[in-house]
């Protein structure tokens, strides 16, 4: 199935459909923007008393069944879709929620905007930013967008940046110690932190020209005020939702849906985000990389990448990151901070390939489907990201519901042919 199969309905029109629906099935792509949008829609449906089901899939296919209305979020499929291309899905979901009579959480919407790679106030998110600022839920300040107040923890695990201390909490702590920051950070301290991160991203070994601009979305964040959100910044919220969309999608939807998440839910979300981010950076540290025309490839061994540094053992000793969940994040980090080419590909030993593109014009998801067809594999994706699995033992396993996520089974297939086919398709 190709990506573009439906026209995007106006928010008011889709709101009318949802208002009259006896039951709504929401299925989102596995990214932070789609999860934020799904949370906004689910909360609005709850407000108007419409029963719903929400789940996450790497390649969502609408399946209404009976009299239910199916809505795909993050993919342009089916009669009722919020694609997420052109502008973040969360901005459209914010408008739909308002049209349903709900008072949607603008911080969740803005987190989705950042997760989509956009900037609050642009790409249709002006209303959400205005609502958040009017209610004094956010404040723009200097610094770095992190989900937690623990700077070392945040810098080591964040997937919004790639520094020499990414993936290593103790190294991040040592870098911070050299700054001599006060316990209570003022704006000057936040500026010094931002300067450190910006320089370390741009000067890191192997940093691409794109890295200097990619780090910008992590700088000068919108801090959340008081109890306005479960994370310290809007960008940190976005980073957490993006990790959760693959590592723990049920937790991600719960975070976006719950107006007042419990301490236990927040802790679970941070634990999943931390494990995911550390695993992605460490795998990229140990990757074997190669450059091709239009494509940068990182071959990783996630089974051997769990090597917590000193001080991380308590948090990571039992971590067993799911390769199917971590590979897309590795590809995105490589695209933003390491790849001199427009497409970055992460390949693991289980015959899986995940790719991320710097532009939607490539149509990466369709390219992955085409390449997979050439080698008898399974391809999926959206305009700017996609994946391929090949070899015996392929299973659909593209559903990630609110209870669990299981990636494709380990295979002994050769991914080399799929990579060659993808390069040809690009």
Automatic annotation (TrEMBL):
Region (Disordered): 396-418
Keywords: Exonuclease, Hydrolase, Nuclease
MF GO annotations: exonuclease activity
Superkingdom field: Archaea
Full protein name: Exonuclease RecJ
Species of the source: Halorubrum salipaludis
